[in-house]
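[job 4417] fold queue: 2 targets
>>> target A
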Amino acid sequence: MRGNRPFEEYLENKGFSSVAKFAEACGIKPQQVFNHIRGNFKPSIDAMFTYAKVLGVSVDEIMNFWYKEDFDELDKILGNK
């Protein structure tokens, strides 16, 4: 699994000057967010719902940062693309 620099940039574009400030707004430890960004593990569904709520976006938008390739592969298998 590779890192997720696009999510870190997304946070900056949403007004979070640091990952630590975003983590604080989510009520979680910064290390958890850093682990997601670095690709150590994908966020749980609960974490993605929290991220979406704090950022004011849909869960689908958050999921695309970690699962887009999976969704694309599923679409190929199902013949949707």
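>>> target B
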Amino acid sequence: MKITDSEELGNIIRNRRKELKYTQAFLSEYTGLSVSFISDVERGKTTVEIGKVMQLISILGLDINIECNGNMINVGSITGHNSDDAVF
């Protein structure tokens, strides 16, 4: 599944939580994350801490796969270094 913004990610996390029949309060107790943080994630707030989001995703039994979309950036052309340096 391709996720294009934080709202989509939040919806996926919310749907998975509900699928597992977890309340935000239960998840908060279990993870140590605050209910307000979980709510922020589910609403797609863009300033949440990525490490905590990754923890939440893992606890909910979800995986993240990152794939190259074919748009490669040649770091050498950006930094002025030799084009043999690095390509991401």
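[job 4417] complete. Note on B: The radius of gyration is 17 Å.
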